[in-house]
Amino acid sequence: MSLLRNFIIFLIYINSLSYALQCTTDCYFQSNLSTTFEIPKSCNQIISAKNCGIRISFSYSPYYSGLSFNFQHSNYSSGAFYSSSVELSDGGSFSFYYSIDHTCNHKDDCAIEFANNNIRNILRRLDFNHADLIRELSPLLSTNVSIETSDVACFDSNERVRQCGIVTKPGLCQAAQQLTGRQKTNRTCNYESYRGEKSVSIYDFGSFASFSITCNRSLCNGPVTQQVIKEIMFKYNITKTIDGRLNNGLRLSLSSTFLLSIIVFLLYV
Ligand SMILES: *[C@@H]1O[C@H](CO)[C@@H](O)[C@H](O)[C@H]1NC(C)=O
Ligand SMILES: *[C@@H]1O[C@H](CO)[C@@H](O)[C@H](O)[C@H]1NC(C)=O
Ligand SMILES: *[C@@H]1O[C@H](CO)[C@@H](O)[C@H](O)[C@H]1NC(C)=O
Ligand SMILES: *[C@@H]1O[C@H](CO)[C@@H](O)[C@H](O)[C@H]1NC(C)=O
Ligand SMILES: *[C@@H]1O[C@H](CO)[C@@H](O)[C@H](O)[C@H]1NC(C)=O
Ligand SMILES: *[C@@H]1O[C@H](CO)[C@@H](O)[C@H](O)[C@H]1NC(C)=O
């Protein structure tokens, strides 16, 4: 047993070493799709941490378009979180949003390495005609018909047609699919968010991912519309798979702390 104990102490020692990573931190700057990626000289703050991280986010609307980078260290688990959304507002305005949060710990300043290695692909992926995307999605998500002249029906989770919005109680149809595990889609009528935006919203943590639609056209939350919207998101290269994943979804990242607790658990229980 003492050999095992020494082995565990050795593992704890190895694990503590990972705190000695050097990460550029508190480094925030803005850019755009046509500017080459370059870390500003002012980003000179280096800190010892367990993980180095970066958040890359892009937003586009008729009034504003911007790309931002934020390098931050983190002492929590490593991994990747992708998110993207398209929102249509009542006044005919819209916005597109895409972000990547990447945290790593395999070497010093690995987040800078990640940015350097991937930025060309990311910029290429985001550089499409955003107005065209909106033009294709709008008729699927939104109707010109007013609630005052026509009721709205939505599918429920069993794909049965249900009355949703009426003029005295307007509502939106929603479909929310978990892309990991059982891949079930929740389909509902939502009364609370009626004044909110018509949207497509996607998340991807690697081991958990979801794809959601909120829309006000009758029966817009069914499997056919859901599939057509997935195909559009894939055609514009926003998603990496036809099924709606923002990341390839094969990477399951286990932190060394987690592995260590499994080993300790197996040895002592
Ligand atoms: C992109 O950013 C650069 C530097 O910040 C700026 O000079 C340029 O005008 C911007 N281009 C667009 C299209 O916004
Ligand atoms: C992470 O840990 C280091 C070393 O223990 C500490 O100096 C730093 O403040 C911590 N950072 C955060 C964000 O908790
Ligand atoms: C909605 O109305 C606008 C303006 O009248 C029109 O350009 C658009 O094609 C209509 N959309 C649909 C889906 O009928
Ligand atoms: C759907 O949304 C559009 C745009 O916000 C609005 O003009 C229309 O009246 C709404 N229709 C229903 C049935 O909610
Ligand atoms: C679907 O609904 C169930 C029960 O309300 C909830 O636990 C689950 O998280 C929902 N799934 C999605 C993808 O929203
Ligand atoms: C998507 O990516 C492919 C391959 O890089 C490219 O040929 C295609 O033009 C892109 N589509 C759009 C809409 O930008």
Describe the SSE topology.
Layout: H1 2-17, E1 21-24, E2 27-31, E3 46-49, E4 51-60, E5 65-74, E6 79-88, E7 94-104, H2 110-126, H3 130-141, E8 152-155, E9 161-165, E10 172-178, E11 185-190, E12 198-204, E13 209-215, H4 223-235, H5 256-268
Helix pairs in contact: 1-5, 3-4
The structure holds 2-acetamido-2-deoxy-beta-D-glucopyranose (6 copies).
Overview of this structure, please?
This protein has 269 residues and is an alpha+beta fold. 26% of the residues lie in helices and 33% in strands. Strands 2-5-4-7-6-12-13-10-11 form a nine-stranded antiparallel sheet, covered by helices on one side. It has a two-stranded antiparallel ribbon with strand order 1-3. A hairpin with a 4-residue loop joins β4 and β5. The chain is globular and about 70 Å long. The chain starts with a helix and ends with a helix. Bound molecules: 2-acetamido-2-deoxy-beta-D-glucopyranose (6 copies). Keywords: Signal.
Task: Note the main attributes of this structure.
269 residues; 9-stranded antiparallel β-sheet; 33% strand; 5 helices; two-stranded antiparallel ribbon; signal; alpha+beta
The number of helical segments is 5
Strand content: 25-35%
- Report helical residue fraction: 25-40%
Number of DSSP-assigned strands: 13
Residue-averaged pLDDT: 88
Q: First CA to last CA: what distance? A: 13 Å
Q: Largest sheet, order of strands side by side?
A: 2-5-4-7-6-12-13-10-11
* Biggest beta-sheet profile: 9 strands, antiparallel
- The quaternary structure here is single chain
Order of helices and strands: HEEEEEEEHHEEEEEEHH
Bound molecules: 2-acetamido-2-deoxy-beta-D-glucopyranose
Radius of gyration: 23 Å
